[in-house]
């Protein structure tokens, strides 16, 4: 017998007012994602805006109740401390982008599959919504999304919170589609 997966329902809904917001970010992402998240968090009266970068070159060794993780490099023989640089770069960018927005925020460095990591963090902080940017505005992203699937779609199908997708690259309705 297949175990019953909890489904979205009014009983599982987290009220937007006063609840955290989780945002998936990547280095070099347009400022629009962070600014949209800050605007929504401010409108919701969110106590905290959690930005999360998910490093797919690392795996989760242990998950903690606050949504943080202990992570290790997939290659046990290699010394890979570049993640510290990535985290510092993201913090600098977010500080620049969010200066003057009057929202409290934290950056969480996660590992593994993006949809699972964001879901784990959202559960841990009792987030009302998860925000992600749409596909990256470069050609290689379309092929990667085709092969791996969209993070927003994976989130929408594998957890019960609403997913807000911030458009980053739109295509004219009249133009010929690139795919």
Which structural category fits the helices and strands? alpha/beta
Largest sheet, strands/sense/barrel: 5 strands, parallel
User: What is the H level of CATH, i.e. the homologous superfamily?
Assistant: HUPs
- N-to-C SSE string, H for helix and E for strand: EHEEEHEHEHHE
Radius of gyration, in angstroms, nearest whole number = 17 Å
Name the average pLDDT: 83
Number of strands: 7
What's the end-to-end separation, in Å? 40 Å
- Specify the helix fraction band: 25-40%
CATH topology: Rossmann fold
CATH C-level name: Alpha Beta
Strand order of the largest sheet: 5-2-1-6-7
CATH architecture grouping:
3-Layer(aba) Sandwich
Ranges where pLDDT stays below 50 over 5 or more residues in a row are: none
Counted up, domains total: 1
Q: How large a portion of the residues is in β-strands, by DSSP E? A: 15-25%
Shape: globular
Number of helices: 5
């Amino acid at each position: 017998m297949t175990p019953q997966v909890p489904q979205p329902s009014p009983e599982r809904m987290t009220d937007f007012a006063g609840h955290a917001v989780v945002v998936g970010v990547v280095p070099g992402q347009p400022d629009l994602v962070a600014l949209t998240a800050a605007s929504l968090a401010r409108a919701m009266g969110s106590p905290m805006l959690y930005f999360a970068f998910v490093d797919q070159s690392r795996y989760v060794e242990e998950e903690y109740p606050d949504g943080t993780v202990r992570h290790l490099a997939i290659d046990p023989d290699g010394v890979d401390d570049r993640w510290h640089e990535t985290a510092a770069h993201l913090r600098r960018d977010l500080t620049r982008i969010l200066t003057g927005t009057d929202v409290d925020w934290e950056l969480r460095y996660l590992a593994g599959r993006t949809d699972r990591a964001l879901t784990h963090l959202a559960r841990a902080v009792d987030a009302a919504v998860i925000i992600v940017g749409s596909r990256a505005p470069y050609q290689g992203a379309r092929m990667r999304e085709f092969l791996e699937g969209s993070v927003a779609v994976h989130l929408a199908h594998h957890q019960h919170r609403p997913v807000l997708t911030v458009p980053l690259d739109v295509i004219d309705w009249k133009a010929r589609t690139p795919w």
